Amino acid sequence: MEPDVIHVQALPHWALQVEFADGTSGKVQFQKSHFTGVFKALLDPEIFNRVQIEGGAVTWPGNVDLAPDAMYQAIKTHGEWVLS
Questions:
Q1: Range 5-83 has CATH code 3.30.2020.10
Q2: Of 11, 23, 39, 42, which residue is most buried, by most CB within 10 angstroms?
Q3: Is the pTM of this model over 0.90?
C-alpha cells in the first residue's frame, strides 16, 4: 500500500503539486486528451481548482478522483505523472 497524499495544490495549465506522507513529492500534469468522461468537468478551472484530499487521495466534487497508487509510483520513478 502506497503512502497517503498529504498536500495538493492546483497549478496553472491543469497541473497539480502533490506530496505524500513519506515525503515524496512531484507534479501531476493533465493533457487535454485526458479530459473525457468523468474528467471532462475538470476543464472548468473553477472546478479544477477545487481539488482536495479525501482519505489520502486527490479528489474533486462529483466523485472524481485519481488513483493514488499509480500517482505515487510515477512520481517516485519520474518526478511527475502525465495523464494523457
A1: yes
A2: 42
A3: yes
